[in-house]
Specification:
Distance between the termini: 25 Å
Number of helices: 11
InterPro entries: Peptidase_M18, Peptidase_M18_dom2
Enzyme class: hydrolase
CATH superfamily of the largest domain: Zn peptidases
Radius of gyration: 22 Å
Strand order of the largest sheet: 1-2-3-13-4-14-18-16-17
CATH topology of the largest domain: Aminopeptidase
Organism: Simiduia curdlanivorans
Number of domains: 2
Strand content: 25-35%
EC number: 3.4.11.-
GO molecular function, one term: aminopeptidase activity
Structural class: alpha/beta
Helix content: 25-40%
Number of strands: 20
Length: 428
Amino acid sequence: MSNLAVITKLIDFLKSSPTPFHAVDSMKKRLLSAGFCELKEGDAWQFEVGGKYFITRNNSSIIAYIHGKQIAEQGIHMVGAHTDSPCLKVKPNPVVNSQSYLQLGVEVYGGVLLAPWFDRDLSLAGRVNYLDSQGSRRSALVDFKKPIAIVPSLAIHLDREVNKSRSINPQTDIPPVLAQLASAEAGFDFKALLAGQLAAEGVADCASVLDYELSFYDTQPAALVGLQEQFFVGARLDNLLSCFVGLEAMLASGSDYAQILICNDHEEVGSLSACGAQGPMLRQFLERLIPDVELRNRVVDRSIMISADNAHGIHPNYADKHEQNHGPLLNKGPVIKVNANQRYATNSETSAYFRHLCQQVNAPVQAFVVRTDMACGSTIGPITAAEIGVKTLDVGMPTWGMHSIRETAGTTDMLDLIKVLQRHYSTR
């Protein structure tokens, strides 16, 4: 497959995945088309050598698994990522009529960089739970797709100090505007809007909407940017970019070795949930895969996890924010992330393993360490290592604008990391 074809697939994946629910749905479709079988957690499981399987939890986390030939001797080659991204989530009772403008109250999910959300063409997507005509509870995904909202900026004439000192109040400054109502007293039935959207998307039996989990997102599609198209710019690169790369690598790797791709929800808010990395999802999967405790511990000892999440590429306008010897450049290879305080799970053994993989596929590799006088973020890597006991390292593609509504990565870094992870999946 050509490089352009892979990039086109990534653009399509991001477009079809405005929320973790949609991302998992997109991944499910690709896995099913590749011959994977969906397992239900409430059913009994049986695995066959060479078999391909996946499970989901909360429809927002997913584990894909290939049952290799010699799992006891070779362990499981794992890749982890996360499906969620910082965003604005709609509150339970969201409708606000302010000066006859319809707005929706929102919560900030994760560490959102708020300024870029102003003056963007926003749409709304997520999961809606409803009663059908028979009185049964159902759920369905919705995506308005078109721009239906905006967070307008305050004109500079009304705040002359805006470029020096304006702060953003997440309660009062960012509720999006969706419409102009007939009067300052007019009401609006938001659940009726959702019922109409369900009908527009083919759900014909919605009797009443019970609840929802909805997020605003930017409708501008991802794009190649730059005179030589060296930069890939889009929403939710943190961390759908890693989900895409992990899936591409698994689908191209073959089935000789046992492989896991796990993409957890809720990483941006700490991972502590039933479907987050600090929850039991992966541990329970391994327990059912290998019921014998002795054997399972031996398999985990022979396994290795690559936690793939984005890394901070050195910013040409803010180079002093980086440790001087550890400023990864875009398009210069995947990044090994290191932190002495275990905010990343990398150690010298797992780092050496990854460097060797890069050598084998002729891919460049870089390293990132945060400045000693700055706080370091974290990933699912240390959490998974602590929960499962598996050898783990943290890697990622260098990006700019992490947690912005649009983030920037290097086009060749993605292609290099696919090669490296494919090698990881298909070697002992």
